[in-house]
Amino acid sequence: MSHLNGSTSGNPSGTGLRLKTGLAEMLKGGVIMDVMNVEQARIAEEAGAVSVMALERVPAMIRAEGGVARMANPKLIKEIMQAVSIPVMAKARIGHFVEAQVLEQLGVDFIDESEVLTPADETYHIDKHAFKTPFVCGARNLGEALRRIAEGAAMIRTKGEPGTGDVVHAVQHMRTMNREIRILTALREEELYNEAKLHGAPYELVRMVAQEGKLPVPNFSAGGIATPADAALMMQLGAETVFVGSGIFMKERATPLDIENDPKERAEAVSRAKAIVIAATHFNEPKIVAEASELVTGTMKGLAAAAIEEAQLMQTRGW
Amino acid sequence: MTSEHLTIGVLAVQGAFEAHAQVLRSLGVNAPLVRLPEDLASLDGLILPGGESTTFLKHLERNNFFAALDTFVRQKPSFGTCAGTILLAKDVRNPVQKSLAVLDATVERNAYGRQIDSTIQETETTLPGGPMEMVYIRAPRIAAVGNDVEVLARRNGDPVLVREGRILAATFHPELSTDRRVHEFFVEMVRREKLAHSATEAHAG
User: Fold this and answer.
1) pLDDT of A86
2) Which of A66, A217, A246, B175 has the smallest count of CB within 10 Å of its CB?
3) pTM (2 decimals)?
């Protein structure tokens, strides 16, 4: 595993970042699921999720309901942390370092500085080196990924377009990042200074990527992944784990499945969760992805990302 | 026989399998990823990596994978780290869960706390070469071991690296350090087992 040595940043020591990326290593080859209550968290764990993201509204609901989306209530996060044995993540608004301080205080295992929530700062992201808790951040391209890593992110994920069930932007972001990485590996040493300028990223990190041919932290995927085939697609494109947001516990019109009172809807959520977990592990075996896809009952209504107005896009949040 | 002839699989249903495979390859060992029961065939040994043990169990429920693994770890050298150790232990707590029960030990999950309590320590071991760096990530605790279990290192009294016959287990992550001694120790276990096995076969023939 490669890691930063702290020479490029205010990171107190290499030790901190190694522990942070170390947890990300443990999450590889799995599925991280958005959950809005204890019961959903239990279903996720039972289905084989490697981690859950505790939040009050999944992206599909935030998109439908509008308003300001903030960090989840600490009470909810604590209940979920008590209910499951797997790591628990939670989201803070971009730039909202006090929400991050609160999440660290609660003891969440990973903080997602997320574009799904309404940004709190239109210029600065959180100084993630200042925290002992690891951070994951979204990125659409290599420059954005390296800026977040320079700020202390221990994991990068594609942004995609959250809450749509449309994987097109996650694909685009993953392809863009990997193409930009491959280009760096072919350039000459003296050409890298200009690349750093073009990407708007620190030279040391650009050089590291050019040498290693990969990001210095694990690279996961999120944003619109809704089916077992979507998960396998992102894994084949190079994602090391997938986040599934609205794809498991939602039905049409941005309404959560009634897992507590309706056995049929509960079974539907369980089947989706299990199927995506199987597909993320056996992403290279079409026969198994086919079997997993067959397990799924019901479908999540998709919102084509192309039909969303520019101002409503979440992926353009973050700088 | 050289290590080039050794094949040590890495259980890759989920977790830090790639980091283990890289270390094995750097030691000149073939390191195929094991995602299906049939992948266990023709391996000389197996590493069960860190990750989420609940997720591992979910994957092992399918296609009789658990039974195949159960047979394998009773016949060939197997090395568990973190979640892999949980899978090998006889008694798992917090919560109680199913395991292969091939290592006579009681293991408590997440016993040292959450990610914020993850740590890197320098610890003495019985392996030559001085203190070893040990990376602990949401580590389990080995609370008790049976009489036949050899303790190779302790953290504040708790065993962190143990061996019982063909089974080696660590609660830390040697694959996340540059120190190769634990992997070298396991490769040597695999080599000796293979030699002993082929000697027995030659004798029988």
Assistant:
1) 97
2) A66
3) 0.94
When pLDDT is cut at 50, 70 and 90, the band that residue A300 belongs to is: low
Residue corresponding to tokens 């650009």: A206
Q: Within chain B, which residues score under 70 in pLDDT?
A: 1-4, 204-205
B80 at A interface, C-beta within 8 A:
no
The pLDDT value given to residue B200:
80
Q: What is the CA radius of gyration of chain B?
A: 16
Contact A28 B119 (CB under 8 A): no
Q: Which of residues A231 and A1 earns the better pLDDT score?
A: A231
- Give CA–CA dist A159/A235, Å, rounded: 15
Coil/strand/helix, residue B24: helix
B102-112 burial, b if ≥16 CB within 10 A, otherwise e?
bbbbebbbbbb
Burial class (CB in 10 A: 0-12, 13-18, 19+), B13: buried
Model confidence at A263, in pLDDT bands (50, 70, 90)?
very high
> pLDDT by residue (tens digit) across A46-78?
999 999 999 999 988 898 888 999 999 999 999
- Position A204 scores a pLDDT of 97
The active-site residue out of A20, A28, A75, A91 is A91
Q: Does A104 touch chain B (CB under 8 A)?
A: yes
Buried (b) or exposed (e) across A271-300, using 16+ Cβ within 10 A? bbbbbbbbbbbbbebeebbebbbeebeeeb
* Catalytic machinery residues of B: 82, 173, 175
Over residues A107-125, the mean pLDDT reads 97
Burial grade of A190 (CB within 10 A; 0-12, 13-18, 19 or more): exposed
B3: Cα separation from own chain's centroid = 19
d(C-alpha A226, C-alpha A247), whole Å: 4
Instruction: Count A/B contacts: CB-CB distance under 8 Å.
Output: 114
pLDDT (mean) for A273-286: 97
Rounded CA separation A22/A15 (Å): 10
Contact A126, A97 (CB under 8 A): yes
Nearest by Cα to A91 from A32, A144, A46: A32
Strands A250-251 and A255-256: antiparallel
Give the bridge partners for A255, in sequence order.
Answer: A251
If phi over 0 gives left and psi between -120 and 50 gives alpha, with beta otherwise, what is residue B101?
left
